[in-house]
Design goal:
This protein is α/β, with parallel strands linked by helices and about 280 residues long. The chain folds into 2 domains: about 140 residues, Periplasmic binding protein-like II (D-Maltodextrin-Binding Protein, domain 2, 3-Layer(aba) Sandwich); about 110 residues, Periplasmic binding protein-like II (D-Maltodextrin-Binding Protein, domain 2), CATH 3.40.190.10. Helix content is about 40%, strand content about 20%. It has 11 helices and 12 strands. The strands form 4 sheets. Strands 5, 8, 9, 10 and 12 form a 5-stranded mixed β-sheet that branches. It has a 3-stranded antiparallel β-sheet with strand order 3-11-4, with helices on both faces. Strand 6, helix 6 and strand 7 form a beta-alpha-beta unit. The longest helix has 27 residues.
Length: about 280
Amino acid sequence: MAKTKSILFIFKNLTLVASLLLSAVIQAKDVILVTPSSSPIDVRGTYASALLIQALSHSKPKHYNVVFSPPMNEARAEKQMHLGRNVHVMWAAARVEWENTLIAVKQPLLKGLLGKRVFFINKNKQNLFSIIRNINELKKLRLGTGHVWSITRIFENNQFNLVTSSSYEGLFKMLAKDRFDYFPRGVNEILEEFATRKEMYPNMAIEQDIVLKTDLPVYYYVTPASPEIAKDIEVGLAAIIKNGTFDKLFDQHFSQLQTSLQLTNRKVFKLTSPHKD
């Protein structure tokens, strides 16, 4: 009888250990794949990736290992996520049609920065922009933008003169070849983009006098195959907003933009948008 009890005790303990080990294995398999940059020198995802890591670290008791998927554009990422393949999460500007295919975690990540647009231009064209008095005069010039970008829909609806491309890096080359007059970028993007490309495009400059302003929130989008991940991101974001981590990380990345780009000294042209940021 004592021997039977001893065997049962050992069995129960082995079962407990096995259960704990299995739990650890399951937790270790919870991996978020974040859509990476559009090119090897594209560093725009640094902030969104760091923010995601912080959010998920505050979504206990689950533990996530945030890793990057192979490079892919938004259209491919959306398709893969809709099918539940390869990519679980991406950060992107709001897009109405994605509401039916992906789960949007509707906490804006950039506090309106992506909707504030300043331009890349060729150095010899600054005078062309300095004399512009209103948005209708600006619309006469050729604007370069991505073919399927969310901001492009806004430019179209506001009747800008567009030249589009499916290639992010290709737009810099097109500007250098004078295929269009200006290339609007989010104020959160343009300084790092300039720093990494100024030697490749020595005639490229940041326009000094104008800023476009529209509503263009940035969200995390999650594959519908993993709704629990969307919920954990939502909970984690709420936690880091409450404890101040969100604001601290935001300030670390973007606190100098107002001064560096002299935003308060620019003419502001407002664009209508279907979104609210």
